[in-house]
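Look over this one:
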Amino acid sequence: MTPTLVVAGTNSGVGKTTVAVGLMQMLRSLGLRVQPCKVGPDFLDPLQHERVCGVPSVNLDGWLMGRERCLAAFDNAVLENKADIAVVEGCMGLHDGRSGSSDDGSTAQVAKWLGSPVILVVDAWSLARSAAAMVHGYRTFDTEVNVAATVFNKVGGDSHGAWLCEAIEHCETTKDVKVLACLPSRKSIKIEERLLGLLPPSSSSLKDEGARLASLQDLFEEHFDLEAVRSLASRAYRAPPTSTPISQIPSPVSAALPPIVIAVARDDAFCFFYHENFAALRRAGATIEFFSPLNDALLPVDAAMLYIGGGYPELHAEALSKNTSMLGAVRAFSERGGFIWAECGGLMYLAQQLITRDRRSYDMCGVLSFDVTMTTRCAMGYCSASLTPQIAALLRLEASKARRCQQYHFSEPTLPGSGEPAVLVDAQGNGGGIRNVNPALNVEFEALVSNTKRAAPEGAHVGKATVATYCHFPLDDELANAFVGVARRATTIVSLVPSASEAATAILGDGFKTRVIGRSAYCDFPPNVSRLPVVSQSSLDLGEDMTGAEVEAKMREAKLKSRPSNNKPHVANIDFLRTHRPGFVVCQDSCPACGILEGTTHAALEAAGLDAGRALTLKPMTVAGALDSIMLLGQALGEAENARRCVDDLEQRLEAVASRVSSTNRPRVLGLESCAPLVASGQWLPDMRIRAGGVDALGDEPGAPARIVTIQEIAASQADIVIICCCGRTARGAAAEVDEHLLKVQSLFWDLPALKGKNSHPKIFVVDHNKFSRPGPRVVDGVETVAALLQIDDFSENLMRPELVGVLRLIVESNEAPRAWRWEPVISDDAGIALALDPDPLPLVTSSPRARCASVMVPMGDGGLVIFGGEDARGERLGDVWSLAAPIGEDCDASWEGWTCGKIHGEDVPTARSNHAAACCGDYLLVFGGWGDKGTNRELCAAPLASAELLHLKTRCWTHCSTTNENCTECEGPTCSRCSSEGPAPRGNPTLVYAPRLNAAILYGGWDGIDRLGDAWILSLDTWTWRELGGNGTGAVPVPAARTDHTAAIWRVDDIEELLVVFGGSTTAGASNDVWTLNSSSGDWAQIVVEDGPQPHPRTSHASAVAGQGADAVLVVVGGQDSSRGSGAVAILDDAWVLPLGPGKREWRRIEGWRGRYPMLRCRHTLNIVSDSNDLALAVVFGGWDGESVLDDHRSCFFASIDSTRHAVADREAAEEAWVRDLWTAQIPLTLSDLDAATLERARRSTLPLALAKALHRAACQEKPPRDTYVDPDTGYSVFTAACLKRRPCCGNGCRHCPWGHKNVKVQGEKRVESEKVDMEW
């Protein structure tokens, strides 16, 4: 066993961390590899250990982890770091743990488990001979604990030290306790503390830390008996482990799986982690990549999970808040459905705002709907947590199982705008979870007051997979595997193996549509697979009519060519891999003709900038190996249970075949996979023949390789049945090969018993290669086919066996020269078997529109909305029409109707398009511009669309819109030779609005594929003529810069005036945030200048709408992108802003109430304002792109109230100022100096117990606002008031003024009060 020492203290604060760290430093200076450990759940001491030892310190908590996990964690760390000695620092006092009745969770418990001697640290500042009595007590309290040595700390000098040693030596029970050192007190080695314990080492400079450690080493070298230390450590002993350490147990499954990246936040703000958690995640197959929320702009590439632990975000709140790029990246990750597990400080980071102790508030990620506020109240203790059904389903774990964890924090969730605690409290003081938040856990504290133990909802579950909690969990392997499983289920894959595509379809079901993003050209089954992009294909021209010899010749030729030119038989699309970055790529390493091999896949991945470890290589050689490959693929997909169910079904089918197989009468079966040359089929095919009830005629065993054979070997095989499956060939193609290369030229073949069947029915069969050459789920189909062929004697019957469909049998018409034969199906065409085709897993959605971006959504007269066109997740442009019924409130479900539309005879309408403009003009939907299937706004050479199209909303009939140009006085329409134009030029990304008082549509801006446009046009719907509005910027009147990707909405100023309001967009100077109005009657432009207050980011591809009319109108802006922030998801904005348009002071206001509640992170979306049945103004947001993908159905559409945005800025600011003031006033402790003279004098004269404390408590509760604490005049400690505790769930620790009847201090004669009646007198 590795030499081990446990450093324990008589109590907290005696200097055991100093002694432990000093020992580690001294031992390391001798060249020893030291493994540090810490008893208990503490995070800070291990940071000190890691700084000194250079390796992570391992937490050993008896209550949280139990004996086996503690010992496994210890053994794994010692083994991994090749430690020469281990130093374990205890927690609190030696025997302090979870309770007073046992050693559970104590240092003594861990010391006994490790069999390690204990060094007891004693604060000797005010001790002499009594020190021996103290050591005696600790040594005899539990004789199973080996208190073998002591260190006296804070010794007054040599004489004091001698006195202490003499006392130990002359006590019968302590005389063999070795005094290792008598340490004097030195300030230079002291480690500073704060609320959560010692300061982390990163809080002080490296120079100061180095000086402290050097001073510590000098002290220990001067005073410690080093040889005694090493001798003592060698006395550690425990029985050999009953099981192998986890790190020594091979994990072939996780080792074979592609790595999954878990991004862990780790820096000065987030530094609280259990090292064993990382080890558990790595054992589960994860690759840990650290990132810094303080310093990094982006998350690690390909992160499939974010793990954000605890720390000190409150100390770094300003820096975290300023790193808006990272805040946006985390928020985007959550809104995309990425898996986030956030503990304590992580929960604080995901909140809307973090409010620190100095009354400052800082924006955080905004994923959660509440703020987090620092308080003086500590919530701490061991607890047990069970998962809510939603989290249990996410992790695929049992919901009822209690998992041990702990909490320690000085913050609490608070309501935005009020600062009040957000946790609900019932009349008995039970917590009810965070207001308006789905809880993640049900947590029960190990309370000091036993009758307060009860489970309460805790934490938050947001969106698809974001989990935030105050609990810190030590991960066991079950929980670590669950984390990795969720992460794996978020990855996409490319399948370059047909059998893997078939298996993935069976495992994933409907999930196949989003998980599998590419294939090889050979992947063609089930039918939906062929819709995927081809990522790999053969570089050779291999036709289905080629023989095996011709294929082999082609392969040899390619192999020779590959030497100088590096050409490969199969090529991969490197650009696709680089762009889409699949989580893993499935390849094979069995047959170079069947697809891209492992080595080529590795090279392709590396050329795309991806790790070769992303290749998942399947190498099945038998039927059992094929089933194992399905299981391996299922584990890589995070769908092990689905894979197990699939394999169980296949195994049941194999068992059914086996039950029908004769154990004695087994025919000899010859299998060939090529006739030129003659090749005996190998690998899993011999196994298939044996499982089907036959004997391999050539004597090949399962897994034997395919091999070339001679006709003499075939003749000698005496095969009773011949089954020929030519690689890559259909049954008809294989029959032609048999005719040409066997039946016509090989007379010995005719002598096989298989050709001498009765009734002129030889048992020679050809089959399609798909059931036999693809070792996936269909390999069992092949076994069933072979079994059927072996079990049927008379093929003249009209067989009803579906497994024989597609099989051809040889019919010999004449055995005399010249021989005559033919091939016919075993199952005749009129057999009447109905074969069910695999359903297409990509049907058109009929209940809601396909997820899309760059569409249009405009209001109809009935309060509903109509949606047309856009671009789906595959980049396909759409031409469908949907209507959305008028919503009835914020929380209602979207009610969709897909329209079946007609068109005018002979017209090719509508044109599928995206990035177009549209407006409802009375009974018509007018559509203009955009990009069709022949062009895209991402290609400079593209041709944008021009001609307008109309949909009559009542008859739902499309037609072309014929217009003329009013600027041409003699316009002849589309063929006009005078103006050469119908009006506005073709363009994409314009805006179009309807001005009802003019009965006209106004078009502005856009992009023609080369230049941004700045022209404005009005189309009269009375005459259907275009007229250009406004100037071109050359005159004295200012006009907006030409732009694209902007927004425009109509503002009805009064009964006469209507203004077009334009916001943002892309100009030659970049993204903009300027606001302009265009008078629809005069054509005059005017800019709305907003100088005061906050400003929204410049943006493009956003959405906006005008809510209200006249002086009450406001401009609402949601989302968009700002490319100056970076590319991809980091550029996407997730904010919403309101600008009052009426007279008076105009100032932008951010809509804080939407943050964390609605998925606003999007661009290329659409927005409209409607009124629900209660005349509540609702913003309806639909579709969009989050920087990585088109928003799915879950996040695509939401309804949000905007009435709350119309409150005056001054009122909002005054309210915020008031609650912040009250919040911080409440947190100032009341002291005796705050009492009026009469109250103070009366309390001092009182003979009642604790009269001064009672007076302070009564006064604190009567303050406006009530104070949370007062300073106890006897102890100087802050004491929480009943007014504070009443607003929070009972902590179970028996607070002095507990309003729930659990006080730990009783006054004689005090009567218990009902929980709803707070006893202010105490």
Q: What stands out?
A: The first strand starts at residue 4 and ends at 9.
